[in-house]
């Protein structure tokens, strides 16, 4: 397969399918469609090497556009996580649940219920994100700006494991930044009810837990800015790259 062969870049608004046979259609110049087709099915393709880059009509995404898409995704996830945390917290301490759950009963059980609720929300976010990136090749923020997350090796859809890894590296730290203070306050409340004062190291640990995600995002930003194709550390680790069709919003 030569570098002259490329995928036809038509019908980019239709999401790729997950099943069914792959059908190659000739491009306008009569050459078989091959490389970097954003509409190709996620599996069953053997494409040109990534070193040849995307085909004409597809380009790597500049940092400002990627940052805008991520910011939109972050806002959506933050709103969902924050309101869910508040709802679960209010439900536990509103008196609706039996006495052992309220602070008048056993606080450790209340803490367990809250932790399970938060883990369920985070797991749900991971599943939804992985599904969107695997099937539609884009998060809601990327869809808004016409961006696609594809395999760096051949331009096809990333695998489910790669999509999950991207979520883990990009969005898993967000709850620590958004609802972290609320969780810290809740733990302090439980310790106070038990008649225990937080250890001297507790404040330091909670502060470091808040700073760690911020430092991680700085690392990701720097890695994107230093890469000629705009691939950050999370892109390299997941074997992906973010591209856009020429003429998409910028």
Q: What can you tell me about this protein's structure?
A:
By secondary structure, this protein is mainly alpha-helical. Helix content is 52%, strand content 6%. The chain has helices at residues 63-93, 107-135, 140-145, 160-170, 174-178, 180-193, 200-226, 233-238; strands at residues 58-60, 147-151, 240-245. The protein has a 3-stranded antiparallel β-sheet with strand order 1-3-2. The longest helix is centred in the N-terminal third of the chain and has 31 residues, at 63-93.
Summary tags:
8 helices; elongated; 250 residues; 3 strands; disordered N terminus; mainly alpha
Indicate the topology.
Blueprint: E1 58-60, H1 63-93, H2 107-135, H3 140-145, E2 147-151, H4 160-170, H5 174-178, H6 180-193, H7 200-226, H8 233-238, E3 240-245
Antiparallel strand pairs: 1-3, 2-3
Helix pairs in contact: 1-2, 2-4
Helix-strand category: mainly alpha
- Oligomeric assembly: single chain
Q: What can be said about the biggest beta sheet?
A: 3 strands, antiparallel
- Residues in β-strands, percent: 5-15%
Average of pLDDT: 72
How would the global form be characterised? elongated
Indicate the low-confidence ranges by residue numbers.
1-13, 16-34, 40-51, 100-104
Main-sheet strand order equals 1-3-2
Number of strands: 3
Number of domains: 1
Helix content: 40-55%
Number of helical stretches of at least 4 residues: 8
SSE string: EHHHEHHHHHE
Q: What distance separates the N and C termini?
A: 32 Å
- The Rg value, from CA coordinates, equals 23 Å
């Amino acid at each position: 397969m030569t570098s002259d062969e490329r995928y036809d870049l038509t019908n980019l608004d239709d999401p790729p399918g997950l099943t069914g046979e792959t059908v190659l259609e000739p491009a306008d110049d009569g050459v078989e469609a091959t490389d970097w087709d954003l509409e190709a099915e996620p599996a069953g393709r053997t494409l040109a090497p990534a070193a040849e880059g995307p085909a004409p009509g597809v380009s790597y995404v500049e940092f400002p556009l990627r940052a805008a898409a991520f910011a939109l995704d972050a806002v959506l996830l933050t709103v969902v996580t924050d309101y869910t945390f508040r709802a679960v917290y209010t439900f536990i301490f509103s008196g609706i649940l039996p006495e052992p759950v309220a602070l008048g009963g056993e606080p450790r059980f209340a803490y367990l219920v809250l932790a399970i609720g938060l883990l369920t929300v985070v797991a749900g976010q991971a599943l939804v994100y992985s599904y969107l990136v695997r099937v539609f090749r884009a998060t809601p923020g990327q869809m808004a700006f016409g961006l696609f997350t594809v395999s760096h090796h051949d331009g096809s859809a990333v695998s489910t494991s790669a999509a999950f890894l991207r979520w883990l590296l990009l969005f898993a730290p967000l709850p620590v930044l958004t609802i972290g203070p609320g969780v810290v306050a809740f733990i302090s409340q439980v310790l106070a009810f038990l008649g225990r004062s937080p250890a001297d190291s507790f404040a330091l640990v909670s502060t470091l837990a808040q700073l760690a995600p911020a430092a991680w995002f700085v690392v990701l930003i720097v890695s994107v800015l230093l890469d000629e194709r705009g691939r950050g550390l999370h892109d390299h680790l997941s074997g992906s790259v973010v591209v856009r069709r020429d003429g998409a919003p910028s």
